[in-house]
Design a protein that fits this description.
Blueprint: H1 3-21, H2 25-38, E1 46-48, E2 54-60, E3 66-71, E4 76-82, E5 96-97, E6 103-105, E7 110-113, E8 117-128, H3 129-139
Antiparallel strand pairs: 1-6, 2-3, 3-4, 4-8, 5-7, 7-8
Length: about 150
């Protein structure tokens, strides 16, 4: 293979690899939100929890409401839809939840962030997080091969 052919193949491979990873945060959020919605149960009124292990901002749903994933255990995740507007929630480093006796109640409790900001929790949905993880693994491009 001559030098020009090698350069063309290398350039094509580079462009395809950059294209695979060049995804805006909005596109990533939309993809993640769609996955969580796909594996979410019907809305429930409340959830009892002992601790929160983390959260992830998932963007806005079709109705324009903000959504977050909330982990309360290793594979225990919930999709929380929040009343809009949740100004700058996507930049929050941490959240707190209001609750009654360790239960979060839809349409009554709030997600608090950035000192004095809060958004009311509209819906709570249990998520099959193992299925979400498997779907994410399946969507990743394979490395190597022929």
């Amino acid at each position: 293979m001559n030098t020009a052919s090698r350069l063309a193949v290398a350039t094509a491979a580079f462009v395809m690899s950059v294209g695979a990873f060049a995804q805006s945060p909005t596109q990533r959020d939309a993809r993640n939100l769609a996955l969580f919605q796909r594996y979410a149960s019907p809305p429930q009124d409340s959830v009892h929890y002992f601790r929160t292990d983390g959260f992830q901002y998932l963007g806005r749903n079709a109705q324009g409401d903000d959504a977050i994933a909330l982990w309360t255990g290793v594979n225990q995740a919930y999709l929380l839809t929040l009343e809009s507007p949740c100004i700058n929630l996507e930049y929050a480093n941490g959240i707190a939840l209001t609750s009654t006796s360790g239960s979060i109640n839809a349409r009554m409790d709030f997600v608090k962030y950035d000192r004095h900001r809060q958004c009311r929790i509209e819906t709570i949905q249990n998520v099959d997080y193992k299925a979400v993880r498997n779907a994410m693994k399946g969507a990743q491009p394979s490395v190597g091969g022929t």
